[in-house]
Amino acid sequence: MASHGELRLIGENYDPGFIGMMKEDDGYGSSDDFEGALGNDQDTADNGRPPKKKKKFHRHNPHQIHELESFFKECPHPDEKQRRELSRRLALESKQIKFWFQNRRTQMKTQLERHENVFLKQENDKLRAENDLLRQAIASAICNNCGVPAVPDEISYEPSQLMIENSRLKDELNRARALTNKFLGRHLSSSSANPSPSPSQGLNSNVEVVVRRTGFCGLNNGSTSLPMGFEFGHGATMPLMNPSFAYEMPYDKSALVDVALAAMDELIKMAQMGNPLWIKGFGDGMETLNLEEYKRTFSSFIGMKPSGFTTEATRETAMVPLRGLALIDTLMDANRWAEMFPCMISRAVTIDVLSSGKGVTRDNALQLMEAEFQVLSPLVPIRQIQFIRFCKQHSDSVWAIVDVSINLSNAANALMFANCRRLPSGCVIQDMDNKYSKVTWVEHSEYDESTVHHLLRPLLSSGFGFGAQRWIATLRRQYSSLAQLMSPDIHGEDINTVGKKSMLKLAQRMAYNFTAGIGASSVNKWDKLNVGNVGEDVRVMTRKNVNDPGEPLGIVLSAATSVWMPITQQTLFDFLRNERMRNQWDILSSGRPMQAMFSVAKGPGQGNSVSILRGAAVNGSDTNMLILQETWSDACGALIVYAPVDASSIRVVMNGGDSSHVALLPSGFAILPGVQTDGPSMQPDIDENTSDGCILTVGFQILVSSVPTAKLTVESVETVNHLLTCTVEKIKAALSVTQLGSVE
């Protein structure tokens, strides 16, 4: 296996060649005769005498090489008699035999030293990572009993200082015992105390560390604070995300370090190796992982592939307009990471920070995380995965972040790999000279295909569901949006800069709530409903809102489904986002034409924007209800999300007011590209040149009762289901789609 330390050989030019052990020579059999090599070959022109003529080298023939190699295997140190016998048999001089064996032994020694250096470098990296973990644990630990730092100041680890510190702690323990005897009337024995492990115990690589999780915190760490929401750009506050479990779970930190190093090594090779590991399709087709070559190249360190699981693996490289450290900071923060990819991550949490890394570079940072990955369709189950995330800086301008699933399961958590596990996946980031970064993303996972509806299986098997292309497309779109958001001149009319940013924050919350409702994320506690007259392809859920000011109080009903549309993604997107055509499908608009009051661009292209829509006045009457709408489209999908908002509330937001108290329930559409699977090159259907179609997801969230304690009726469920069906039928009629695919 390649040395982890050798990864530092990646320079600023980021050589895409394979990083591994230095290639050994094939043997010394083809070496030259070094006769006279120890003589004085220097030019002696300085003393006036002509230089000596250098002797010619003599190359041994194949027969001589074979005989010498065979004898060397049996006896690497021949004596004088054996050298004479070889000289006679091979027609070589005795000193030629002598020099050959000397050179062969030297080469053998060099090879052994090289192997030893590689091994020692790997062990050194491992020890450094473990040392960082121990230092941070010692520096940040607090006493579980009294709540004060266990190590209040920097302590010297000299023997004399340790003895003094030990004596001080014994005195404190004796005083505590005396107070216990005096006030509680009982004796506190030394065995009842639970002292922290000694430094020598902490260095044991096999020790199991028990982490007590309470709420969001991982280790009971004095430096850990509760995040009160996360900021993206100028701060779009999202709900606090908590772990889904709160029980004591032992795990071996040293084992996690080993897994992280092995995963990083595999990611680097996966990112840089070409054919035969990756097979590129015709034209601009996607790269396909050669599974047989993968099995020959890598060994599994997280267990065998579960029975019945399908493999998906993709790789994508792109230039992104940001610096490497900015992306590192986003990816190593669970909340910012989830906010950067809201359509792919419905929930993310950092369970434990094993190492925070070195300074701002986050080198050797290691975290234990849990996340829910989603595709915007109710027909694809959420993938809940526990994994470790490891960040490594390989040079001044190159970083890598790798994720790999781990199974921390015990009797209370035996279904950790229920539907998916993530093999080493992540990205290699290289800073370029033009304020861009070159990002190579690798996604590799195994999942249970039987849990996915047949309509969505081609999308997932092609990699466009959870693959690298989707991560890269989202990353580029989000950073373009961020650049637009932070620009001092955001295009829009009749609204100041503060108001524009406040409106964008409100739209971001709207889109987040919509995607969380489509995937049934555990962030919002949805209860799934099974109603006899609702098709299996429709997911109906409900929840109660009691105290969230960002939503109407009462019972919220959510309904979503996915259907096949035999038109292109771009055609469908342009139709749904056009406010002049909205009355052709929006039942709630009552057939009234809509007009855009103003629009704020979120990136290049007309489709990436946040708009305020208003219904045209009918018979001289105006309406006090407006529609907030956000739309975007990229190579891997599109989104149209909208929600009715009160005119007075939106005026406050446009003037720069707080948008967190604006109550809204989002509805909308998610468009996933159709995939051609007939040939070796699988491409999404996103332009007008192909006509296979796309997948449309329709979702509604509706307030069915303003009383949180009210009971949900069957009529309410049927009403939402009817709204869903009528909307799809109206879209079909407006686009003259005669063969609209339905889910069976």
From TrEMBL:
Gene3D superfamilies: Homeodomain-like (1.10.10.60). Residues 53-112 bind DNA. Residues 50-61 have a biased composition (Basic residues). Residues 249-484 form the START domain. One of its GO terms (cellular component) is nucleus. SUPFAM superfamilies: Bet v1-like, Homeodomain-like. Residues 25-61 are annotated as: Disordered. Its main location: nucleus. It comes from Gossypium laxum. Keywords: Coiled coil, DNA-binding, Homeobox, Nucleus, Transcription, Transcription regulation. It is found in: Nucleus. The keyword Zinc does not apply. Belongs to the HD-ZIP homeobox family. Class IV subfamily. It comes from the Eukaryota. GO terms for molecular function: DNA binding; DNA-binding transcription factor activity, RNA polymerase II-specific; lipid binding. Residues 51-111 form the Homeobox domain. This is Homeobox-leucine zipper protein ANTHOCYANINLESS 2-like. PROSITE patterns: HOMEOBOX_1, HOMEOBOX_2, START. The lineage of its organism: Eukaryota, Viridiplantae, Streptophyta, Embryophyta, Tracheophyta. InterPro entries: HD (IPR001356), HD-Zip_IV (IPR042160), HD-Zip_IV_C (IPR057993), Homeobox_CS (IPR017970), Homeodomain-like_sf (IPR009057), START_lipid-bd_dom (IPR002913). Residues 112-144 form a coiled coil.
